């Protein structure tokens, strides 16, 4: 049995816990919005980054990160293409000199429709991108990380992992599954020193919510339910992602961290 003295010997100064110097991170959905904010946070903490973008010509975020002096690689990947999803992690390992310490699955889509109008194609496309592709990447990461006895995986779930929402049946279903998948993978992989967690954003001012924010009534109704009194911003995810990707969260696994200004609590 590990002694208290042994446990205390593992402690390091608190600021050092959040350092990612020498770490390599792989991020989907990192070209804009929450994913881009997460990429900036990891780079600011010292990490090198591999971004999986739908288009390799989408370099705005990468250019901004490189301007900070970071190493940033871009790989083209369409998460709607399962062959891309199956192969992208190994490509990231190869381009990052055989090393990936952190995986952030932020890529996803939303199709807003009344449930009675959702087509089978609509349903499959959302489930494929938000859940199946995410699982395939996690699976590849697990196969890589298990023999190395180390790794951090952070999946992006949603407030809709807990609530059904309206006109988002496929999205809510996919994000509910992401939360449960995160727990299932943690149950299997924690013994290998791999921490698998998720972040669940609430009402965040990103492209995916442009239509809601453009509707004054919808916008006001959402704000009225948030105890913090505002929509969230991508920058609100810098701290949470750094915590979950660093040594500060070594005994945190299987958790879904809600970042919603208190919405769920109400």
TrEMBL record:
SMART domains: PKS_KR (SM00822)
Keyword annotations: NADP, Oxidoreductase
PROSITE patterns (alphabetical): ADH_SHORT (PS00061)
Classification via Gene3D superfamilies: NAD(P)-binding Rossmann-like Domain
Keyword S-adenosyl-L-methionine in record: no
Pfam families xrefs: adh_short_C2 (PF13561)
InterPro entries: KR_dom (IPR057326), NAD(P)-bd_dom_sf (IPR036291), Sc_DH/Rdtase_CS (IPR020904), SDR_fam (IPR002347)
Span of domain Ketoreductase: 23-192
Keyword NADP: yes
Domain of life: Eukaryota
Gene Ontology MF terms: oxidoreductase activity, acting on the CH-OH group of donors, NAD or NADP as acceptor
Similarity comment: Belongs to the short-chain dehydrogenases/reductases (SDR) family.
Full protein name: Ketoreductase domain-containing protein
